[in-house]
Amino acid sequence: AGVKEDSFNVLDLAEYTKNQPWWRKVFAPSSGSSAEKYSVATQLVIGGVTGWCTGFIFQKVGKLAATAVGGGFFLLQVANHTGYIKVDWKLVERDVNKAKQQLKFHSGGSKMSPEVKSRVDEVIIFLKKNVILTGGFAGGFLLGMSS
Q1: Which terminal CB of the chain, N or C, has fewer other CB atoms within 10 Å?
Q2: What is the rounded CA–CA span in Å between residue 16 and residue 91?
Q3: Looking at the record's lineage, which domain of life comes first (predicted)?
């Protein structure tokens, strides 16, 4: 039985996209801030719509998570009260104290790692360059949370 070998052309997407003008226009690192690309009204609309969508989804997920955690805690309390489970409160207290000590140790005077600091600096630079977009997003987020 003869095996037919097919030849395939391999397309390197990284090289292909570098040569596309639309790709450079949209994703080039030297393209500047979005404030240079869009008008003030467009930035406010984009920021407001994305902020509202994020806030609305955050609110719905937050309610669902709170219901799940509260319901789970309630069921555990009922199971403990009726005798289905027994809680070792001394063990719980010991673990909570151990967690408190870990939090004090990690938060007590420790500096941010260089990786985290560089990411924080990048976010701050982005926010400064895109004040209008960020303001629109913040306003939209608050509206989404309240609706």
Answers
A1: N
A2: 60
A3: Eukaryota
